[in-house]
Amino acid sequence: MLEERALAALTTLLSPEQVFTDATALIAYEGDGGLDRGRPEAVVFPRSPEEVVGLVRWANEYGVPLVARGAGTGLSGGAVADHGGVLVAFSQMQAIIEIDPLGRRAVVQPAVINLALDEQAKAYDLYFPPDPSSQRVSTLGGNVAENSGGPHCFKYGVMTNYLTSLEIVLADGRRLRLGGPAYDYPLSDLCGLLCGSEGTLALITAIGVRLVRRPPGVQTLLATFDSVEQAGQAVSAMIAAGLIPATMEMMDQQIIQMIEPFAQAGLPLEAGAALIVEVDGYPASLSEQMAEISHILLAHGGRDLRLARDEEERARIWLARKSAAGAATRLAPAYYTVDVTVPRSRLAAMLQRVNAICQRYALRTGHVFHAGDGNLHPMVLIPDPDDPALLERVREAGREIVRACMAFNGSLTGEHGVGIEKREFMPLMHSPAELSAMWDVKQVFDPHNLLNPGKIFPQSEAQVWKEPPSVASLALAEEQPWSPPAGELLAPESDEEAAQILAQCTAQHRPVLLMGGDKPDQAPFPPTDSAGLLLTTAHLRGLRNDAPEDLFITVGAGTPLAEVQAWLARRRQQVALISPWPEATVGGLVAANVNGPRRLRYGALREQVLCLTVALADGRLIRTGRPLTKNVAGYDLTKAFIGSYGTLGLLTDVTLKCWPLPRLRLSLLLPVEDLRQGLLWARRLLPLNLVASALLLCHGSQLAQRYSPRLHAAPYLLVYSAEGLASDVKSELTAVAAELQRAQAPEAVTCEELSGDDLWCELLRGEGKNGLRARESLVAQTSAPLVVRVGLAARDLPGWLVDQDQLLQGCDWVADLAAGLLYVVTPQVAQSATLLEDLRAAAQANEGYAVVMDMPRPFASLAVFGPPSPALELMFGLKQRWDPQAILNRGVLLPPHR
């Protein structure tokens, strides 16, 4: 119970109707949608970020835990106050602050309902894809806290894929904005790190998300199979054919027999499995997609194929899938939904294990699962919720299911979170080193453990992992004689050797500069310490795990991207990464967070990296994540290393999502005489982006001019590329051409050989008009031009470009208009420092930034990122925990003189 003085202070912060302390009223807040219970000492209802700040400061003063709560629909006890304290219910912060249709972005308060945002977006022909089953009642704050997914995440991804900014209150009461209206803010992806953190790191007061174009057409099909194995083989065959349905949902016979009497959706009770397949896109492509899918389903034992003829029939098909919970409560007063994820190729085997476990514990269960992403949801019926012995059997069965999942390289939770329910299971999935790395994050954000204490981390084994296991390795490193000469290039042959080298360097306080090449002059930054060493990942190279059925590949961090793409192309797959530099390694691209125009089609690099292996400077070797689309088992440490420029740890391997190669890629190239006119044409094309892979305005491209004489004279080039299924690509470019004709633009050149990616790479390599001219006149005597990425809100970039037209004279540049990113390339060494300073000042005046992507050697001491961001202190906190002697890439986070 709250101390009287603490309660008195609380009532001065909020009005009486914003504070519940009555025991009867608190009963409603004891639980969520799961089995765990815990009564808070009070419930408060803040109405503004300022009130949240006041609450956090009050909690610090009186040592009271705070537990954030949205709609209470969670299933793992994440919003249950099992340690007492005050429940912070955000239900009165439910405003949609902004929808920016041009920039395809929305900003909302945390209590906005998921479906309400999607309905508002629909008015602008936009779509918010994350759609958990609780979509009608769950809040966006809760979705962020749990990194929610839903049936459509196979194609569209989960909540973290759409998160662009967070306004938060830290545990000490400071307000902070992470991210913002621009993409790819410099340094670690702290927004991504907080997503899925279950309210243990900060309280969220506003959320920025990106939106996508709403697909103009959708078709849904229901097929039945004799077994889950047959249905699973059909799913694998669709993926192998290069098809990416919007969703693939499966039900086994047990759940069909539960659902059909309740929903009367026409499911055959004798079927071994039912599969719902939904495709979306342009109407012209839907019938072709469904014809190909139907052929595959029939070839793999599918029968009774039922294609929805209208929206009413589609709703009846989905009623079957969404009636699982209602059907279960018809048969028993309670049920326990298990949430685990395995690679999709192991679904059938995992299902057999789960059935055997439930039979052994005499539990009745049925299965609904997301077949596209391997996320299983066994629903265990609980006939008597007051029977302790039964509940104990249910929990023990859950533990065995998790153990079985671990044997398949899966995750103990795909979308429900760890919370209370699975905190004791965490050591089954994570090593002590990995748990201690997560605890480090908690200590940086919430050192006094005030925010949602007791969640995520195991309570019974706390002391085992709170002490970093690297202490022994550091002591050993201090004892071993090891003194390579300054400037030596070290090339570890294994992850373990790399971790040991870093431990030795930490013990001796010797700085290390990380690199991917095998020659000292290939280091990305100059050494800042005469006693320093170079460490290359050149021998951490090659294929480590190739899983074409599960759409992922794991490679050593020192593997060149070109090698990965060549390997995947043999089976008509690709990774959605790109680099202008042929020698670029996968680890280097991840560490620098390099994104190209194709993010418009496939998402950003942060969405392509499934997991990493990282050697920390203190000798810990950790695995961040799993090779799965859905995994919310603890903090998403992967995001901390993306964009960290090697300052937090050494990436030793990278697991990437694979995509089918597009069946067709086409571009429209349009000569532009006037900058303003080109930007106006581009603005008219932005709403059409569905399968677009680039919408660029280029200045200085020579590649396109060599392709067609019609493009030679114009100073600017507008590029619209699209890729995917042939019908979709053709439909989109037909619409683009029609829009340009209405705008009275000149006829565009249709091109299959060049894409936006090619032109972007050309200009960033310094091969544009001004770059080539400088080389011919011997003005540029440096190893590389200055390449600067400027990030702004997409809606602001066109006006900013016009305003800075004079500043950009003499530069080649390419504007990614859909992403709000401008890449400026100058070979003029003498003007580099001044240009960088001016670009930074102009960008920061518009909530943007300017970051150096490449630079000439004479100016290698330029600040890569510019002035410190508000989030830099948090990143420094992580660095102090993971690199206590600051040996890694010194001088990168701030210029050396800082």
Helical amount among residues, as a percent range?
25-40%
How far apart, in Å, are the first and last alpha carbons? Answer: 48 Å
**Which spans of ≥5 residues are poorly predicted at pLDDT below 50?**
none
Structural class: alpha+beta
Q: Which quaternary structure do these chains form?
A: single chain
Mean of all residue-level pLDDT scores: 92
- The helix count comes to 32
- The overall strand count is 37
- CA-based shape: globular
Largest sheet: 8 strands, antiparallel
Radius of gyration: 27 Å
Strand content: 15-25%
Kindly summarize this structure in a few lines.
This protein is of the alpha+beta class and 898 residues long.
Detailed description of the structure:
With 898 residues, the chain is an alpha+beta fold. It is 34% helix and 21% strand. Strands 12, 13, 14, 15, 16, 17, 18 and 19 form an 8-stranded antiparallel β-sheet that branches. A hairpin with a 4-residue loop joins strand 23 and strand 24. Helix 13 (347-360) packs antiparallel against helix 14 (388-407) and helix 18 (470-479) crosses helix 19 (495-507). The mean pLDDT is 92.
List the helices and strands and how they pair.
Elements: H1 4-13, E1 19-20, H2 23-27, E2 42-44, H3 49-62, E3 66-69, E4 86-89, E5 96-100, E6 105-108, H4 114-122, E7 126-127, H5 140-146, H6 153-156, E8 163-169, E9 175-179, H7 190-194, E10 203-210, E11 212-213, E12 217-225, H8 228-240, E13 247-252, H9 253-263, E14 273-281, H10 283-299, E15 303-307, H11 311-322, H12 324-331, E16 334-337, E17 340-341, H13 347-360, E18 365-370, E19 375-382, H14 388-407, H15 426-429, H16 432-445, H17 462-466, H18 470-479, E20 489-490, H19 495-507, E21 512-515, E22 533-536, E23 543-547, E24 552-556, H20 561-569, E25 573-574, H21 586-592, H22 599-602, H23 605-608, E26 609-615, E27 621-625, H24 638-641, E28 650-657, E29 659-660, E30 664-672, H25 675-685, E31 692-699, H26 703-707, E32 716-724, H27 726-742, E33 749-751, H28 756-764, H29 769-776, E34 786-791, H30 797-803, E35 812-816, E36 821-826, H31 832-844, E37 849-854, H32 872-882
